[in-house]
Amino acid sequence: MQQHPALEREFTMCFTSTPRGARLARRLVSHRLNDWGHPYTTTVNETLTLITAELTANAVRHGHVPGRDFHVHLSLAEATFRIEVTDTRAEKQPSAANPSATDALSESGRGLLLVAALADDWGVSPRKTAPGKTVWAELHARTKGHPLTHRVAPEPTDVDLLLATSSLLRDDLGSRPEDASPGGRRP
Fold it and tell me: What's the pLDDT at 106?
């Protein structure tokens, strides 16, 4: 029998299957991580927020069923964060073996490549209680005094893509110095 690690922290919520719901999920996960002692600018918070953004955007774009919500579950157990995004569309399953076969000129289709590059592990499982699927990702928290787990560094083009994508997640125009007018107000 498989032993499940004891949960230290947990956050679960339903969101409307809209871009606004995806944005709210991303913000609440970041806020919850901050409350759990991982401030907004830490690697754990930024990485899990980016992973959440990709998974929730996919749930809205590819897992949307009219009138149905998606669910987000964030947990921390034995220094491992797990984010799960569950939608109600069972027939559209992402491939864990080959996250994306997108050509270089396509403007979309790289979300799961980001998840695969950022997460220590990720996958897809059937929804337990109803039709649908759960796409999950795990991130091992780095603790002081312990060596990092072995990870392959992303190619330079992947780093450029990560930086470009994370800058797109910032909704507030005033968060960028070039967009703010004197006095801190937007034009």
Answer: 53
